[in-house]
Amino acid sequence: MPRLVKLPWIPDERQWAAVLGTAADEPVRNRVMLALAYDAALRREELCLLGTEDVDPGRRTLRVKAENTKNRMERVVPYSAPTGVLLQSYLAHRGKISRARGPLFLSESRRNYGQPVTLWTWSKVVRRIAADSGVERFSTHTTRHLCLTDLARMGWELHAIAAFAGHRSSESTLRYIHLSGRDLADKLNRSMDHIHAWRVETLARLGEQPAGER
């Protein structure tokens, strides 16, 4: 049977705005987790297993440990200035829960107070945001898909996106190039450049012909 290869789903601008609008009412921990998940294109495991020692606020970077990645490849990724402000707010809040170094994101539930946030807990948060925003397809992996697609839209080279994402194979990265439409747009632009040059040349030749031969 033929194998079907589908591109990852990403939200359109209206859907993304709905998700962000809903997330704005979440506790600071959930908001910063969502922001980092997008900014750094983090997988669910990479996000939930971040430690306090993995954050470098001065350089606005995160270290994603090899043991927490899908492909066992360590990488250092940046995050934006607005996310940095949100992260600082969370770190101050976290200090009220625990001053000990260790897992970055801590539970505040009565049953697991001060314990690391689990993958299940984060999935539950994202499912709630998806339901409340009306964007049911939104998942813990959507932010990664959207970030990598946005990088392709901005013109990042294939190898740079692959390094940012922690991909071993460029085939995985190519999905986001295709999803962004960049490769098709580039081909169309090159084709149009050629067609435009041909049209101009043809018109120029037409202007050189005697009036009776036109």
| Structural shape | elongated
Count up the domains: 2
- Number of H/I helices: 9
Compute the separation of the termini in Å. 57 Å
- What is the chain-wise order of helices and strands? HHHEEEHHHHHH
Content of β-strand: under 5%
Helix content: 55-70%
- Strand order across the largest sheet: 1-2-3
Stretches where pLDDT is under 50 for at least 5 consecutive residues are: none
Number of strands: 3
Mean pLDDT over all positions: 87
Please report the first level of CATH classification, the CATH class of the largest domain: Mainly Alpha
Quickly give the CATH architecture of the largest domain. Orthogonal Bundle
Description:
With 214 residues, the chain is mainly alpha-helical. It folds into two domains: 13-179, hpI Integrase, Chain A, CATH 1.10.443; 183-213. It contains nine helices and three strands. The chain has helices at residues 13-23, 28-39, 44-48, 81-97, 119-133, 142-153, 158-165, 170-180, 182-208; strands spanning 55-56, 61-64, 75-78. A three-stranded antiparallel β-sheet has the order 1-2-3, with no helix packed on it. Helix 1 packs across helix 5 (119-133). The chain is elongated, with a radius of gyration of 23 Å. The N and C termini lie far apart (57 Å). The mean pLDDT is 87.
